[in-house]
Amino acid sequence: MKIIGKLVNVEAKGVGKIEAYDPEMFRMNTSITRTDSGAGACEIIFVEDLIILKKGNPLFHIVFQGSIYGLVVWFVYNLVRFIFFP
User: Do 6 and 20 fall within a single domain?
Assistant: First the structure.
């Protein structure tokens, strides 16, 4: 996956009922180096475009879809068994 965007700083004003411990303004600054750590070491990205470079494994998709259908069949089977064969 490829993300296209810009590093941004975030600033937001508190809305609604503000409690004593809530700040009126909320600020987060993006990191501009790759070697920093700790609080404030996160990159905040304003995403402008997202490109999928490679499709996922189709086998997992088929297994997932089959498990959903299998779950429905299992539920109907148990419902019929419960109603007609108590």
Answer: yes
Looking up tokens 């475009």 gives: 49
Domain of residue 72 covers: 55-86
State the total domains in the chain: 2
Backbone φ and ψ for 55, nearest 5 degrees, come out as -70, 155
Per-position DSSP letters for 19-48, written without gaps between them: PTTS-SEEEEPPP--SS--STT----EEEE
pLDDT in tens, the chain (86 residues): 899 999 999 888 877 777 767 777 788 888 888 788 887 788 889 999 999 888 888 899 899 999 999 999 999 999 999 999 87
